[in-house]
Design goal:
0% strand, 139 residues, mainly alpha
Length: 139
Amino acid sequence: MNSFFLLFIGVPALEVFLMIKIGGEIGALNTVSLILLTAIVGIYFAKLEGIKTMRSGVMNMYQNKIPIYEMISGASIAIAALLLIIPGFFTDTIGFLILIPFTRKILISFFVKKRNISSNQESSKTLDGEIVEDKKDEL
């Protein structure tokens, strides 16, 4: 329930607060223009990063490698584009951070390591085994 509250109530409230504060400093028209400009520039850079990621994935496939990082990176670029379309300064900041390849690599490695730690804890309770029968069928 806490994450639901934070996502659907907290983020829009933070966005409205930031828009009011920034609008009070630079004016309402400049604030709206800035929001539109960040959305346009962000989508343009998301398109460029997406094309670059697709090229890298195709190159990995030509080399008979599985493009795992490219698939994760493509999904994160799509999330960044969605965050950039949503009007607001907080979501735009998060979207731009995801678009930058350096920070995207850090975020992906953080979440992959966190996932590996939790999956290793679950798999430690599992015991692998093999059934061997002593009797053979005789014909």
